[in-house]
From TrEMBL:
It comes from the Bacteria. Keywords: Monooxygenase, Oxidoreductase. This is FAD-dependent monooxygenase. Residues 6-298 form the FAD-binding domain. One of its GO terms (molecular function) is monooxygenase activity. InterPro entries: FAD-bd, FAD/NAD-bd_sf, Geranylgeranyl_reductase. The keyword Oxidoreductase applies. It comes from Chitinophaga defluvii.
């Protein structure tokens, strides 16, 4: 083997989970390579809210969060299509930070530590043979003892490998699209809101430098019914909610065009595919209304690290590595993913959403258990 292309671990995808895992593995020490198709900094379709459960972990990675002047979010507001409002405290709450800033900061930590991060590089094929992996990019072939897939919601590898969620027929949980803007708007720094509209909902919260992230999820049918015109869809459908009408009318939009992603699926996924450990959205996507996708990505990186550490130290077999990671992943995230799918199936339905909000306002003791069901503890 060529020592220049031979690694202990190759991570495909340099987002939150991939970079966090690489930083942890480097501390073993471990020869780790990150392959990332984009460059840093970059924007990504994401709600940009991080639960406080991740704060100790991120600080251990080297992020000086207390010195970054990030908004602390402790209140939640939910509205139905008519503008009826539920307001509640959010425990443990979180903080706002853009993917543009967060991914670049983590990449900087990794690169400063000497971890090779190949940007603008696509992994085209992953082959497992003779208890080792071969990863083929456009420029080079690499080998590794372990490969981790942190390539996001849907990648060329998913499509080429015909994973089950890619082949599934279009149903209520697998035919969504996401749209994101950064805006200037006088939004309370401690508040995150979810505003419902027909077949979708839109979140708004503060990030760094006084900006706000405005990100919404909707079924693809809404765009099709609007002649595939995003602005028309926002005017005709989203702005039926008076809260969204006020935001879209009064905000200063900082980008000429929004970021968009389609074919989002919330169906169940496997955590190990052809011996590749999957992390973040590649392993399972929690609905944005639960607000914990970024923390789940970080926590999954820790679970993978603990299992990989034992495997590379020859304390466990490959079968045990895969079993341990899958079991730990399901234990940590199974309940909140199920709760998220249940909420997702009902949000965006006008009458159901209104009934749920009225019920939660009347029986306020249900609010905290519902929030706890979609979040975790510090790790």
């Amino acid at each position: 083997m060529n020592s220049a292309t031979d690694y202990d671990v190759i991570i495909i995808g340099g987002g939150l989970a991939g970079l966090a895992l690489a930083i942890q593995l480097h501390q073993l020490p471990c020869r780790v390579l990150v392959i990332e198709k984009d460059a840093y900094p970059r924007h990504k379709v994401c709600g940009e809210y991080v639960s406080m459960e991740s704060k100790p972990f991120l600080e251990r990675l080297g992020l000086p969060l207390d010195g970054m002047a990030l908004p602390r979010i402790a209140q939640l507001e939910v509205t139905d299509i008519k503008g009826h409002t539920l307001h509640t405290s959010l425990s443990p709450g979180g903080f706002g930070i853009s993917r543009y800033k967060l991914d670049a900061a983590l990449a900087g930590i990794a690169m400063d530590a000497g971890i090779p991060v190949l940007t603008k590089t696509k992994a085209d094929h992953v082959l497992f043979i003779n208890d080792h992996f071969r990863v083929q990019t456009q420029q080079e072939q690499y080998t590794a003892k372990v490969v981790c897939g942190a390539w996001g919601k849907r990648s060329n590898i998913d499509i080429r490998s015909e994973r089950d969620f890619v082949l599934a027929q279009k149903k209520s949980l697998n035919n969504y699209m996401g749209i994101k803007y950064h805006i200037e708007y006088p939004w309370p720094s401690s508040l995150i809101a979810l505003h419902n509209f027909r077949d979708g909902y839109c979140g708004i919260s503060n990030i760094e430098e006084g900006k706000s992230c405005l990100c919404y999820l909707t079924r693809a049918g809404n765009l099709q019914q609007s002649g595939n015109d995003i602005k028309r869809m926002e005017h005709d459908i989203l702005m039926q909610n008076p809260h969204l009408k006020k935001i879209f009318t009064e905000a200063t939009f900082l980008w000429q065009q929004p970021l968009a992603i389609s074919q989002i699926s919330f169906q169940q996924k496997e955590q190990v595919w052809d011996h590749v450990l999957l992390l973040g959205d590649a392993a399972g996507l929690i609905t944005p209304l639960c607000g914990n996708g970024m923390s789940m990505a970080f926590h999954a990186s820790k679970l993978a690290f603990l299992a990989i550490q034992d495997f590379l130290s020859h304390r466990i077999s490959r079968d045990a590595l895969e079993s341990r990671y899958t079991t730990a992943w399901k234990k940590q995230f199974g309940t909140r993913l199920a709760a998220g799918r249940l909420l997702q199936a009902n949000f965006g339905q006008n009458q159901v959403t209104s009934l749920l909000l009225r019920t939660l306002k009347t029986f306020s003791f249900l609010q905290k258990p519902l929030i706890r069901a979609t979040s975790g503890r510090p790790f």
